[in-house]
Write a structure and sequence with these properties.
InterPro entries: AAA+_ATPase, ABC_transporter-like_ATP-bd, ABC_transporter-like_CS, ABC_transporter_ATP-bind, P-loop_NTPase. This protein is of the alpha/beta class. 34% of the residues lie in helices and 24% in strands. It has 7 helices and 10 strands. A 6-stranded mixed beta sheet has the order 6-7-8-3-9-10, with helices on both faces. Strands 2-1-4-5 form a 4-stranded antiparallel beta sheet, with helices on one face. Helix 2 packs across helix 3, helix 2 runs parallel beside helix 4 and helix 6 packs across helix 7. It is globular. The structure holds adenosine-5'-triphosphate (ATP). The site of adenosine-5'-triphosphate has 13 residues, from strand 2 and helix 1.
Length: 270
């Protein structure tokens, strides 16, 4: 379980101006829950996720994972980034095994675990390839296998499918849901896509921009397993309704932040 209480964070830019990235953000994510986070660009989604990951310090408030305060990265939390963040000189196998190696797992076990996960994400036969020899979708499969290799309880995903094509994205979404069911993980998943937020999430956390706050939490009461197939949730009226509701809310947020005139223009876009 993740508890975020009263978290605030400001950045001071090189020109001395301050951006309030997060203000008094509170959120509870239950064990095995899949929460998606949606909001306008620059509303602090990545800052929030990196804070939970222990990768950036915040100014006020507290973040607990299973009751323990987050003070840095930890073995129970894995992060998947949009740009894959793979080691370009290391093979697929070595990339997936990297975290296990860091944790001192012996070679035979890390190879066995990594090969099994590589097969699970559909990349059997690609173990000896370098990331540069793979498509974007394949690279993100490696990113996912690498994150799961250390058997985390919490998976933190920062727009992981944002850089892949729509067809691959749909396949990856369904694969992620299957992995989530199998591994019983708690997932926090950032996205810009309303459709993705609804297809994946138990709840959608809507954030508003400047300062970044939790504007609303929208429950997604749709049956699982979910898919894009005929008869699947992705084609249902209820899915379309929640997606439309999220768009209405986001559109209103965008309208609020539109610069009124050039004279008023202190707008800083992220
Ligand atoms: N290292 C940094 N230094 C200065 N300002 C930063 C830094 N990181 C983030 N910010 C600012 O904090 C705000 C929130 O950024 P963040 O990346 O968390 O937003 P986001 O919602 O993830 O954006 P996007 O949806 O575009 O990825 C933005 O205004 C951004 O410019």
């Amino acid at each position: 379980m993740i508890t975020i209480r009263g978290v605030s964070k400001s950045f001071t830019g090189r020109d001395g101006t301050t951006v309030e990235a997060l203000r008094d953000v509170g959120l509870e994510v239950a064990e095995n829950e899949f929460v998606t986070v949606l909001g306008p660009s620059g509303c602090g989604k990545t800052t929030l996720l990196k804070s939970v990951a222990g990768l950036v310090p915040w100014d006020d408030g507290e973040i607990l994972v299973d009751g323990a305060p987050v003070r840095g990265p930890g073995p129970e939390r894995s992060v998947v980034f949009q740009n894959f963040a793979l080691l370009p000189w290391a093979t697929v196998l070595d990339n997936v095994a990297f975290g296990l190696r860091m944790r001192g797992v012996d070679r035979a076990e890390r190879e066995e675990r990594s090969r099994a996960l590589i097969a699970t994400v559909g990349l059997a036969g690609f173990e000896a390839k370098l990331p540069g020899e793979l498509s974007g979708g394949m690279q993100q499969r490696v990113g996912l296998a690498r994150a799961l290799a250390v058997r985390p309880r919490v998976l933190l995903m920062d727009e992981p499918f944002g850089a892949v094509d729509e067809q691959t994205r749909r396949l990856l979404q369904e694969e992620l849901l299957a992995l989530w069911e199998e591994h019983r993980l708690t997932v926090v998943f950032i996205t810009h896509s309303m459709e993705e937020a609804v297809l994946l999430g138990d709840r959608v956390v809507l954030m508003s921009a400047r300062p970044g706050r939790v504007a609303e939490i929208v429950p997604v009461d749709l049956p699982r397993p979910r898919s894009h197939d005929v008869g699947g949730v992705g084609r249902s009226g209820a899915y379309a309704e929640i997606t439309a509701y999220l768009w209405d809310r986001l559109r209103a947020m965008h309208a609020e932040h539109r610069p009124a005139s050039p004279a008023a223009g202190t707008e800083v876009s992220a």
